[in-house]
Amino acid sequence: MSTNAQKRGFGATLWDYLTTVDHKKIAHLYLIAGGLFFLIGGLEALFIRIQLLKPNNDFVSAGLFNELLTMHGTTMIFLAAMPLVFAFMNAVMPLQIGARDVAFPFLNSLGFWLFLFGGLFLNLSWFLDAAPNAGWTSYASLSIAQTGHGIDFYALGLQIAGLGTLIGGINFLVTIINMRAPGMTYMRMPMFTWTTFVVSALILFAFPPLTVGLFLMTFDRMFGANFFDAAMGGNTIIWEHFFWIFGHPEVYILILPAFGIFSEIFAIFSRKRLFGYSSMVFATVLIGFLGFMVWAHHMFTTGLGPIANSIFAVATMAIAVPTGIKIFNWLFTMWGGSIRFTTPMLWAVAFIPSFLMGGVTGVMLGSAAQDYQYHDTYFVVAHFHYVIVGGVVFALFAGAHLYWPKMFGTMLNEVLGKITFVLFFVGFHMTFFIQHFLGLWGMPRRVFTYLPGQGFETSNVVSSIGAFLMAAGVIVLLINVIITSVKNEKVGNDPWGDGRTLEWALSSPPPYYNFKQLPLVRGLDAYWIEKMEGKKGMTPAEPLGDIHMPNNSFIPFLISLGLFIAAFGAMYHGDEGNTWGIPVLIFGLLFTIGSMFVRSIKDDHGYHIPKEELIDDNDKGVKA
Amino acid sequence: MHVEEKMTVETWPAAPEKQTLEAKNKFLGFWLFLGGETVLFASLFATYLALKDSVPRSDMPLAKDLFEIPLVFAMTMILLTSSLTSVYAMYHMKNFSFKKMQVWLGITVVLGLAFLGLEIYEFNHYVHEFGHTFTSSAFGSAFYTLVGFHGAHVAFGLLWITTLIIRNSKRGLNLYNAPKYYVASLYWHFIDVVWVFIFTVVYLMGMVG
Ligand code: HEM
Ligand SMILES: [Cu+2]
Hints:
Chain A has helices at 2-7, 10-19, 23-51, 62-96, 105-124, 140-143, 150-178, 191-222, 237-270, 277-290, 306-334, 343-366, 368-374, 378-408, 414-440, 457-487, 526-532, 555-572, 581-601, 611-623; strands at residues 547-549, 607-609.
């Protein structure tokens, strides 16, 4: 199948991707879509930094600045970081547990299309009316009062995209619980699978509050409800709570998979078993649990009172403990290992001090009394960029280099990879380190300019130059991708030579059914164990037999399209003299429900790959 | 075991809802989905409690002025009974008595419709007798959102169960559709449990002020 794809025309390939339910192809889709949104978000960041290059700059207007700022944050979190993390989860996790596919291939595809249509909807705001402009947090006190449709794009777009994420979370949970290969006990699961597991649970419990918050905002803005309108008895603090009950777990939803990717990298390139595996698992679960107890540290200055603030301050600082455990485990993994400084490893090594600094400022912010000083200054901006860029984005770069051969069958160029790393690493610290001091000197965040003579000039110039270095790093990566794809030199199963987990036992990319015979897992780092005993591959756990596969389907696309259409109806129906809004809303919803109905009544048993065909494949493999 | 296989009473397994891997996945996935739904409703309850009786003018109706126990008590009994009839349906599914299962599910749907009818009547009553609407106050918004979300779940459940009844009417039970029936009944129970909380938190606690 994968070889067929190259011979087929563009149309057939496109149709294949529109209807695919294969987790490996869905991973490609997430990577491409997430990558594009990452570029858009990055461009917005550059505009922000150009505007702040000098005092009283008028590169963009104050209004446009607010839109850029809001869309940068929203895009990066929801449309870039999340889907890119999902890309690696889809590409790698099923292989790591020795599964042929995810539990719900159809829902997997639905999750992707919902995310994509949600993201498109949000970004169409640039061309229609106005973009959201109340910050990625969109506090109701501000957002309810905004004229135009910007905030509506935010509420509806995130609703659709969020639904997709929730579906993805359930899918991964069931996959990990039900579809592990024989011998793959929970305590033998690779760290990346563990973090996927915990993160999926976080998604399941953290996204519904966001769903509700967005519904309330939608109802208030488009259907005349009064949840946040104090004059009608409403209360804007409700939004803040929902947003952060979602929002704090969300930052852990992003960082835990990053921890997972780095855990794999440290073990692979130190050629050593991950130090303290069980304490790593424990720390991951504990972080996931504590992540739900700390949301009000974002609301210290809201006025919840000293008792609430103290409780949340203590809970917040407690999270530093399991995080510290992890840092030490990574250090001890490297200790005494035979380290190879490949591109992924460079990112991993650089991640430790970078992320650590973000953690330290986090604990500073977590002390409620201090936070009154830091809140809404550049100090907070520095903090969360150190954890999100120094943690999550570094992991995405590292993961892209590490898993590129597994996803596309060819290696990214190592020299270019290292150039990307140096440019981005230096740029990152240049941009954000100085922002700690800008914050301490009193520069407020989210303001479109500043006055001369306050001592902010030089620092802002440094910060902006750093941003351009990061952009240069990303451009080198893009060049790397193009060169690599054009050359297209195929690699074998284990291109890094030191793969430890099951995905490296398969060809790159794996066949569409992943495992011809499910592998027998005999311990942590299953593939490594076999290699140490001189074996070429995994011992099969079952005789060769027919393989059951799911059918492709176009319905996920249609279900998502319906909601996309409905969102336009909901948004515009309240406009002066609008007559088509409600009909379009109803049509879109019926379109979605109708598509679900078709899915429900049409039996879909999938198909079987007969045993004989699999033997064929094997022979071909031997000849080649 | 093949999903399309023709089954008989003898070959019908004790747990027909989780024989295949797909069925097991569906079973677990649906429970997890209900976990997410629980958080969703918990959030709506929290909103309701925060905004209960929060009205802009003192002459507007509050919870204690609006609710009347007889009507909601009847609704509660109807929905609880529908949960019971869906249990009967699942009992017959396990015994491979397709006809009886379909009949009990049919009764479940009828009860569900009755519940929805009363709910519409109830909302209509509040709107026309008291001017208590979705847009009249934060209290109104929170009330209709919480109870309305539940109502929308009931409506969706009715569509779903009806689809199953009609779709399978000609072909009887097999291991492909048994899990579908099963999760639909799980969903129905969940809706019922949520209603018990609504009855307590919104109506009973509303009566006492
Ligand atoms: C030791 C761990 C951490 C602690 C103690 C901590 C603490 C805090 C506190 C107290 C704030 C609120 C600051 C304010 O607004 O005044 C904050 C903001 C933030 N943190 Fe952290 N944090 C930690 C780790 C992380 C991680 C791992 C991430 C993401 C991967 C993260 C992402 C954010 C973001 C995005 C914000 C800003 C949200 C906004 O207002 O726009 N934090 N952190
Ligand atoms: Cu937080």
